[in-house]
Structures are given as structure tokens and as C-alpha cells.
Amino acid sequence: MSHCYISTANELQNLLYQLRDIPVIAYDTEFISENRYYSQLCLIQIAAGEIQALIDPFSVGNLDAFWELLCDDRHEIVVHACRSEMEFCYRAIHRLPNKLFDIQVAAGFLSNDYPAGYGTLLERFLKISLPKAESRTVWNNRPLTTQQIEYALGDVSYLEQLSQTLQKHLAEKNRIDWYSNEMKRIKQYLQNSFETPRWRSLPKISSLKPRELAILREIWFWRENIAKKRNLPSSRILRDDLVVELARRGTSDEKRIAALRGMQRSDAHRIFPEISAAINRALTLPPEEYPIPSDRFTFPQHSVMTQFLYAVLCSICQQNNISPQLVGGPGDVRELVAAELGTLPSDVKPRLLSGWRGELVGSLLNDLIDGRTAIQIKRNNPDNPLNFVENPVTKNQ
Fold first, then answer.
1. Residues 214 and 90 grouped into a single domain
2. Element spanning 373, H or E
3. Residue 188 has pLDDT above 90, yes or no
4. Considering the domain boundaries, does residue 27 fall inside one?
5. Which helix (H) or strand (E) holds 88?
6. Which of 28, 49, 208, 249 has the fewest beta carbons under 10 Å from its own?
7. What is the sign of the dihedral through the CA atoms of 214, 215, 219 and 222?
């Protein structure tokens, strides 16, 4: 199938006109994220019906009409591992497609491997193998080579076929609703992450007091503004651990800032006054303007029970051919155990008891904790050895 290379605004307008009534659009991007604050969008790939197109963002100009097309409810947008593709869209028009099918997430409901690469899923579900020679190519060079074009088109050529296969398997296993609910959660998570300043996600800040959080917030915003202006990763301006330590020390004295291990750098004479000014802005705030510490809770770790029940979770997933990484990790199991033992705050609902996760694993784990269900070891099946049966002891009580 031939493709069109879109390099002008008029060509883009014509392409969008051709796409307007096509119900399924496969979409992918090539970008460069290394040593940048925002990833650089280098190429957009589209496959829809008989259309295969490469859009050159360096030459077509404004892409808002394209992003609006993706968010039009007439189209289902098929992607693999949607975060990066959705970030470009949201950054442009502050919207996400309503009808979004992510083959990586869908495959997680049908196999034990999540997150799986595009090539892996093609081989597993369609028995198709694609070349990988251009996976580390430099996408912002022009003109593109024949090999780069073939590789880029390969990333979208089979997306619709793969989505149809996965949707068929999901329907056969009655997991369409599970997948749909998970995608709603993922889209909400992505939107929140794109909208919300991420200073609260810095590591090891749970013990900081409100005044220290105010300092951390001011340093974080200073760092992000500099990183955006210079188009550099935030860590190149100031490492996360140094931001946290500066907040904990709570001083704007430049000599004490300079004495912090890790701050010995060639541009110190330029950044120390700026860091000091950021800290001073926080120190002059009235206490009522300090950030409120995030709600957090601690509870006993119940390590032995958690380890045992996480092994049970993995066994349930293997029996049902669904990825345990998609279902939950040891932390989720620990939360459920604490809820069952009464050591979790009452206003916190364990994730494993919600929605499809509760249906798949939560109820069974609860029954094991409460003694209503027992485990038998199947010696003749060492790869899938656990069998869950009604506990005869509680049955006769």
C-alpha cells in the first residue's frame, strides 16, 4: 500500500478531509525525549482504511486541526502505549480522545505479559514480525531515509487489525467491560498528570512540614521554569534529592546552600542567588498559605501475609491468562490485608476490592484471609499448582 507524505498545511487539510468519515484511525508518533524538557515531536504516522500517511510536524505548521480530529467522537483512535501520543494531543488542545483503544492495555487482559512491546504483540496475536533496525534512529534529521519511512509505517500498518483481534478475544472472555473501565481510569490518570504540577510527586517528602513544603514548592516551580526556558530535563537544573534537602534545611543563606553536598557545580554562582530568592519567597508566606500535607496513612506491613497473598494473586492471574502487573503489585495486596485486619483507615478503599480487580482477585483474597477458602497444592501441575476450594473447617461450623 502506498503512502502520502504530508509536509504542507494544504496537504494536511486535504488529509483531514479524507479522514473525516473513516471510523477507525491508527495513530503513532516518533519523537526525541533525551536531553529535553518536552519531547520533540518528529513524525506522526496514520493508517485509516486505505490511507497511510506520514505527517511532518517540522513543515506543516499548526497541528491543532489534526488533534481536534483525533478527539472527534466519530473516530476510534487505536494506539500502542498511549501516554506519549496523548501528551502531544493534550498539550496542544487540552483534550483527549473519548474513543481510545490501547492495544498494550487490551493485551494485558489476555496474556501474562504487560506492558508488552508492539513487536511482541504482533508476533503473539498476528504472527507478524517487523524489522527493528530503526528503533534508535535520529528522527529529527531530514530527509527521512527509505528505511525510516518503512519502519514508521510499520508502527501503524497493523494496529487496526491487531485491535480487532484483541477486541474479539476480549469479548470471548467477557472482558470488554473490564478493559473499558481500566481505560477510563488510565485516561483520568493521564489527564491529572498532564494538568497537575508534579512537585508533590518528588521522592521522600511525606515527612516534610507545611513550611518545608512551601519551600519545596517554590524551588520546584523555579526549577521547572528554568528547565522550560532552556528546554532541558528538570534534573539537569537541580536534582530531585537536592530540592528535597534544601526544603528540609529551610535556609536561604547562600553559603549554607553551597555547602550542601551535590551543589558543587560550575554554574553555582548563577543559581545560588535564584535558589535563595525562591526559598525567601516561601519563608515570607503567611502560614495559612503553606501547602497542606497530602493525606497519608501508615499501617503495619503484614509482610509474611502480603508475600503469600501476592503469590496467590499471581497464580490467579496465570490461571486466567491476565497480567499480574496490570492487576496490582505487593503494595495493593498489603493495602487489602490491612483493610481486612482492621489496620487501614476506614476511608481508604483497597484498589483490589474495586471494579474488575475485585471481581477477579479481591473477593478470593478476602475469602482466604477470612478462612472461607482453602488452598490445595496440585503436585501434578507444578507450573500452576494452586487450587482454591471451600474450607471444610468453616463449612462445618
1. no
2. strand 373-377
3. yes
4. yes
5. helix 83-93
6. 49
7. positive
Alpha-carbon gap, residue 68 to 102, rounded angstroms: 19
**pTM, full prediction:** 0.90
Q: What is the CATH number of the domain that holds 107?
A: 3.30.420.10
212 has pLDDT over 80: yes
Q: Residue 134: pLDDT above 80?
A: no
Residue 3 main-chain phi, psi, to 5 deg? -130, 165
188 Ramachandran zone, left/alpha/beta (phi>0; psi -120 to 50): alpha
* Domain-ending residue, one of 195, 218, 238: 195
Q: Rounded to 5 degrees, what are φ and ψ at 100?
A: -125, 125
- The angle, 0 to 180 degrees and rounded to 10, between the axes of the packed helices 118-125 and 159-172 is 60
Enumerate residues 6+ apart whose C-beta is below 8 A from 163: 24, 26, 78, 101, 103, 106
How many domains are there within the chain? 3
Mean pLDDT in the chain?
Answer: 93
Residue 287: DSSP 8-state: G
How far is Cα of residue 323 from the mean position of the Cα atoms in its chain? 16
Q: Give the structural domain span for 167.
A: 4-195
Asked whether residue 294 is domain-assigned, the answer is no
291-326 exposure pattern, b = at least 16 Cβ within 10 A, e = fewer: beeeeeeebeebeebbeebbebbbbbbeeeebbbeb
Q: How confident is the model at residue 83 (pLDDT cuts 50, 70, 90)?
A: very high
Cell numbers standing for residue 16:
483531514
Contact 26, 160 (CB under 8 A): yes
Q: In terms of DSSP bridges, do strands 4-6 and 51-55 run parallel, antiparallel, or are they unpaired?
A: parallel
Looking at the domain assignment, is residue 297 inside a domain?
no
For residues 35 and 120, state if they share a domain: yes
